[in-house]
Amino acid sequence: MVMDSIKQILGSSPQDLSDPDLYLNRELSWLKFNDRVLEEALDETHPLLERLKFLAIFSSNLDEFYMIRVSGLRRQMEAATHKTPPDELLPSEQIALIRQQLLPKLDEQYDCWQNDLLPKLKKQGIRILHYEQLKRKQRKLLRRYFKKEIYPALTPLAFDPGHPFPHISNLSMNLAVVVQDPKHGQRFARLKVPKIYPRLISIPSEEKADEFQELGLDERNLTNFVWLEEVVKANLDLLFPGLKIEAAYPFRVTRDADPEIEEDEASDLLAAIEESVRERQFGSAIRLEIDKSMPDQVREILQTNLDVASYQIYVVDGPIGLSDVMELMGINRPELKDVPFKPAIPPALSTEESMFSVIRRKNILMYHPYDSFDPVIRFIREAARDPEVLAIKMTLYRVGPDSPVVAALMDARENGKQVAVLVELKARFDEENNIIWARSLERAGVHVVYGLVGLKTHAKVSVVIRHEPEGIRRYIHLATGNYNDVTARVYSDLGYFTCDPALGKDVTALFNGLTGYSRKEEYKKLLVAPGDMQKGIISRIDREIKSHQENGDGYLAFKMNSLVDHPCIEALYRASQAGVKVDIQARGICCLRPGISGISENITVTSIVGRFLEHARIFYFRNGGDEEILLGSADLMPRNLYRRVETLFPIEDVGIKNSIRDEILRIHLKDNTKARLMLADGSYEPVVKGENEEAYNSQEWMIKNRGIWHHAE
């Protein structure tokens, strides 16, 4: 049915831009993105352990997709109410198509694991063994270890008329155990395999067996591993003495992890978020993964008691939850990983001169991870210690553990600075971490705000207010990525230091709205959501259409994570119809269909999935030669434009603007190695390199030429 619609589009060239056939489904487009992650696992040009990493990411991405997106579709189905997406697919239709598209990819994933990666790992001396493959001495040693370390943490739970069906927590690994009781016959029990242990247990080679106890569980110089659940399964007799163990089958349940938070009724948002995190373990079952060996009788027990339909059950031929193979990245085998590199430091910041002196003299662009994140940390640390600094204000979305940024903010408060921090407690799956930091900041005397009711604060903004001879000056850092020194090593994001007075006033007004009751909606330079951001983007697209009609040189280039918003897509369709050339690079979801005659033949869509997570948002408008570039935290998605506090900020420094255009955006758009070209049906194919065209891997180019964008400074 979907393919018929696509053929109809390509054949009839509909002119109604609200036609649902012109819009790809958000969820199905996300699956195509995850397919590109799987492609990286299949790509033999990557080092072996990096391929393993991509396989793990493919799996962990799916876990989150089911916990959030599929669970949302299920809720809509059960409530019989839903918002109709631009493509007009019903929730039930989307769920059916998700399963249809996903099943062959799961087969591909496990084929990659079993028949490609495992043999190659073995050749490199890294063996993932089944318990029955172990030597007698190794089994004896593991049994001893099981008794001492694992057995005390296990709690078998019976299921019979006297014992209710136990709760199965979200994403926990479990064994469905079938035992034979001499008095009562066959019985069923559930055993949870605790997450406190590594999923892959290091085991000794035969000659090192006697040393295993001294080596310990976390030693990573051993390269023989066995699955934890297989160790537990092999020693079930210790948990069920007097009973015959007939069989044990691994299974895992994925639950709805997006509970509704009634913010308007919550007197304490912090407590409400804590409660919502706890509720994740008790959400409705969305997916049941079972081992292929599980018989129908056991399957029916799980299906009935978990209240899942047949289409929610996935039969797995291999280890359930391959995201855990990420543990193997802990092996000390640098030759099997990407070659490390030293991030650049902007020349202006490589001296002992105060950052404030440097920023007064020039604006500074940083592109992480090719540029070090250290100057961002240094900026906050200097502010914390500078006697002329009066106040620091900052938004924190995903902070990470042991955050040097948070430590600097607490130091600032101890040094008598006024410090105000908006900690977004609703940053999904980072809530617990953010709660810990929020409380630590409060204890240090920092003014902590937990965000706005009904909105997530996703903007990446910090401002330092400093007293100087000329008066008060604001030093600003604006970014596309989080204040997280860990993710800054693997996410490609842009950051910008400036003391532009107009931007400073805008940022101050933004913080007044975040921490107080300001209702300011118009800003001189910033585009802010919710508010004028969508209108600002669309008006600039319309300006480009007008400029093209006058000058014939219309061009737009947008780089972002996702493109979903219907009015923005419609505006881009109008631009294409007017003859404006449009380049879109969307790493993840893209609901726009490129290449449709009369609609989008002037639009090219590419996606890059590679060593680093493409996370920067860049919006370029040629504007008749008076070029405009906006950077910021927002994708063109309804959630970003209507339900989050976001910022886009202009780059007005001509040299930096040219560097972004020529040495960042242009290079990524020229990628013909990792880039994939999107077709009208939503599928992707490798970009075809011209016969005499030089090969471009944009991320490798950035590593080799890191810091080249600093010449503009």
Question: TL;DR?
Answer:
By secondary structure, the protein is an alpha/beta fold.
Describe this structure in words.
There is one protein chain. With 713 residues, the chain is an alpha/beta fold. The strands form four sheets. Strands 14, 18, 19, 20, 21, 23, 24, 25, 26 and 27 form a ten-stranded mixed β-sheet that branches.
What are the key terms here?
single chain; 27 strands; 19 helices; alpha/beta; 8-stranded mixed β-sheet; 713 residues; 10-stranded mixed β-sheet; globular
Q: Layout of SSEs?
A:
Elements: H1 2-12, H2 26-42, H3 48-79, H4 91-123, E1 127-129, H5 136-150, E2 157-159, E3 173-181, E4 185-193, E5 200-203, H6 212-215, E6 224-227, H7 228-234, E7 244-255, H8 269-279, E8 285-291, H9 296-306, E9 313-316, H10 355-361, E10 364-368, H11 374-385, E11 389-396, H12 404-414, E12 418-423, H13 431-443, E13 447-449, E14 456-457, E15 461-468, E16 471-479, E17 491-498, H14 501-515, E18 527-529, H15 533-551, E19 555-560, H16 566-577, E20 581-586, E21 603-608, E22 613-614, E23 618-621, E24 628-632, H17 638-642, E25 644-650, H18 654-670, E26 675-678, E27 684-686, H19 698-704
Parallel strand pairs: 1-6, 8-9, 11-12, 12-13, 14-25, 17-22, 19-20, 20-21
Antiparallel strand pairs: 2-4, 3-4, 3-7, 5-6, 7-8, 10-17, 11-15, 15-16, 16-17, 18-25, 19-23, 21-26, 23-24, 24-25, 26-27
